[in-house]
Amino acid sequence: MASLSSSARRLLGLILLALNVLLVNLLIARIAPSWDCTANAAFSVSDDTREILRHLEQRVTISVLMAPPERYTPSLYYHVKELLTRYQQLSKRIVVRAIDLDADPERALLEANALGVGPQLLRRGVVVVTSGQRRRQIPVDQLATRQHGRIVDSSADAAISAAIVAISERKRRQVCLTEGHGEPGVDDLGDGGLSRLAVAIENDNFVLKRLPPSALADLSPRRCSVLAVIGPTRELLAAESQRIAAFLERGGALLAMIGPVIDGDGRHFRPLPLKELLVRWGVRFHPGIVLDPQAVAGERPLLSWRTSTYATHPALVALGGRPTVWRMAQALAGDRGVEPLVMSSVDAFRVQSLDALRGEGQVIRPPARREQLAVAVAVARRQARIVVFGSERGVLNRRLDGRDGNLALTLGSLDWLSRRARGLSLRARQGDAVPRISVAQLRLVFSLSVIGVPALLLAVALWVWRRRRVER
Amino acid sequence: MSALVIFRRELWSYFVTPIGWLVATLFALVQGFSFYLIVELSAESDAVFGSPMTLFFGGTYLYWLFLIAVCAVLSMRLIAEERRSGALELLLTSGVSSLQVVLGKLAAALAFYAAIWLPTLFYVAILQLVGGSLWLDPGVVLAGYLGTLLFGLTALSIGLLCSAATRSQLAAGLSTFVALSMLLLAGPSGLFSQGDWSVLAEYFDWFAQMERFARGIIDGRALALHLGISLFVIFAASAVLERQKWRR
Q1: Taking a C-beta distance cutoff of 8 angstroms, is the pair A364, A347 a contact?
Q2: Are A28 and B39 inside 8 Å of each other by CB?
Q3: CB B246 within 8 A of CB B93
Q4: Contact, A206 vs A173, CB < 8 A?
Q5: pLDDT tens, B132-177?
Q6: Radius of gyration for chain B, computed over Cα atoms and rounded to the nearest angstrom
């Protein structure tokens, strides 16, 4: 009887212990504490993001539409999910909906339709940040730079928190796009149009407003957060330039994408629109077109080249170090206060002869000094902010597929110009790298790990066995 | 104090027998080969894997197979052997509590388990030699070993319970192997189900838990789960011993 009651007590104790274990696990499952031990704090949330999440006033839903890869492979899906778990821990207003494109394609398609995500973007994977009626799409290419699936640089924290800032704004900022000076059309769906850029800007939670020449009279920083002059081929009237100058003096922001303008006969450069005004703000244009034989890209390789050489600037945060493609770009320089944003390699040079570019003459590389040439610069002077690109070709429909960094560079510039992501200056984080390893090194790894260590232990085993025999 | 004496005696028994060293050798051979393959794969320019140490901790079937096999082998003799030889009765009637016996034996098995993992620290040095800091994230290494130790604790506790419940070492080893295999497969089973079971299976998913450790994240949920299971199993094993003590 005593034994029975003692057994019952033990059983009761075990049940109580099991309940306690269960309760503790339930509690910890709710809190989900975790500690990021990685050297580059790959899964940690930055202080800027913590600040943003702390001050969230409304519910923000983050939909992750991605296909998770095999386990243990470097995975952007895993990286984003881990990061968003931490966002949820920091703010109760963050709701995360992760949909596996492979496991649940029908649900993913429904969700994509509801979020306005097209089939192409869905196939590549996208993160959509939504708050009320506002929404911002972040293609996975904008979350990290990857090589063979490895994350080389991650800007997921920066991109997602910038999206939260953008959609949480009480008032949508306006981007005013000039028209009437030969600019490509925002309605033009052809290769040379800006329709894709227009959609991307609106998806980025800006209000896109067209500005015909007559509307420049009402130009003010209150009406236009950013004035965008993209690819004009005709000089602006003096009165128009004056209005833009006055706009900048009152603290306005200007995004100018001005590439070389070539005559109808294709033999001469024409004067650059807005050049005089930009010179007054310290931006200087070097004549000619920049060629970079080190990084050729595209179908006419000499004219198109790719670069990943960037300065450290808030306008470049969203870019995350991805390469941008430059075609028919001209070199820019500036006085003090003009910061180069995008640079060529040191092998780049300028060509001023259009005959040579057309193949009628020889492209002669000048024996000049080796130096990087800037093709995009930024100016912040007094209250005004200006970003100038040496070419608009990178944002035309034919090039704007989202894979290169040109769209992210443009949107990042708009963020900086409109002061939208103020205080958000997260740097991309370094990810996995692949060191080169020689055959001799591989042999060394084999010798040490497969032969050396087990042989050492075997020797100890034999010694112990021999000793025991001797002792017996 | 008695638990400490049992711990010392038990640990010493692992190191003075050639069997303990042979287990360590076999373990090092398999892990070494696994490590070499991982380095070879990771060094390819189009490799889809990250840092070799990330893959080393739980990224191969060899890791899991040897984890459960080694834990089954280490734990099967802990109590079953004492019972078969009659030493258990002596031990339990000499004023040592059943909990002290369980704790002492488990601590010794865990210490030996940790010891056979020690030579794998040599791989860290090898990586430093051939890959430098590019391949070596100290956080990943630290979290990986912590996860390995945690999983070892759970596996050895379950093995100890199986050993306490039977007289035969073979039965103890086999039942441990089966129990651990079932626990290991419970997580992936969630992939084929939906609803509450899927959520529960995800929580118990050892592969996913170890993957987080291997990526350098110490997961509080995994810590709570494994420490909780181990605590419960330790007391369950102690209750089994206590019950047997009263039966005699």
Answers
A1: no
A2: no
A3: no
A4: yes
A5: 666 678 888 999 999 999 999 999 999 999 999 988 889 999 999 9
A6: 19
The DSSP letter of residue A328 is S
The residues of chain A scoring below 50 in pLDDT are 1, 422-430
Tell me the pTM.
Answer: 0.66
Tell me the chain A residues in contact with residue B25 when contact means C-beta distances shorter than 8 Å.
454, 457-458, 461
Kindly tell me the sign of the dihedral angle through the C-alpha atoms of A451, A453, A454, A455: positive
Considering only the beta carbons, identify the residue of A441, A449, A461 that sits closest to B18. Answer: A461
Residues in chain B within 8 Å Cβ distance of A43:
215-217
The Cα–Cα gap between B198 and B195 comes to 5
Q: What does the block give as tokens for B59?
A: 């990224």
Distance CA B200, CA B197 (A): 5
Mean pLDDT over each residue of chain B, to the nearest integer = 86
The pLDDT of residue B181 is 93
A137-161: string of b/e by CB count within 10 Å (b at 16+)?
Answer: bbbbbbbbbbeebbbbbbbbbbbbb
Say if residues A127 and A62 touch (Cβ distance below 8 Å): yes
Nearest by CB to residue B122, choosing from A6, A451, A453, is A453
Phi-psi region of A149 (alpha: psi -120 to 50; beta: other; left: phi over 0): left
Residue that the structure tokens 């330039």 belong to: A241
Rounded CA separation B70/B76 (Å): 10
Beta bridge partners of A386: A254, A379
Say if CB A125 and CB A407 are below 8 A apart.
no
CATH class of A47-167: alpha beta
Q: How is residue A414 written in tokens?
A: 């708009």
| Residue A159 DSSP SS3 | helix
Q: Can you give the residue ranges of every domain in chain B?
A: 2-247
Domain spans of chain A, in order of start = 47-167, 172-417
Which pair of tokens denotes residue A206?
A: 């800006």
Contact B18 A462 (CB under 8 A): yes
Q: Which residues of B touch A36 (CB under 8 A)?
A: 139, 216-217
**Quick one: angle between helices B138-165 and B98-117, nearest 10?**
140
Q: Residue written as tokens 């291997």?
A: B214
Looking at residue A426, its pLDDT comes to: 46
For residue A198, give both structure tokens: 């227009």
- pLDDT per residue as tens digits for the range A77-116: 878 888 888 888 888 899 998 888 887 888 888 988 888 8
The amino acid at residue B207 is F
Tell the residue number behind the tokens 């939208």, with chain if given. Answer: A420
CB A431 within 8 A of CB A152: yes
A228 and A175 Cβ atoms separated by less than 8 Å: yes
pLDDT score for B23 = 86
Identify the pLDDT of residue B247. Answer: 64
Residue to mutate among B25, B38, B225, with most A CBs inside 10 A, is B25
The CATH topology of domain A172-417 is Rossmann fold (3.40.50)
Between CA A98 and CA A64 the distance in angstroms is 5
pLDDT tens digits for A151-172? 666 678 878 887 888 787 777 7
Q: How far is B242 from chain A (nearest CA, A)?
A: 9
User: In sequence order, what are the residues at sequence separation of 6 or more whose Cβ sits closer than 8 angstroms to the Cβ of residue B53?
Assistant: B123, B124, B127, B135, B136, B137, B140, B141, B144, B214
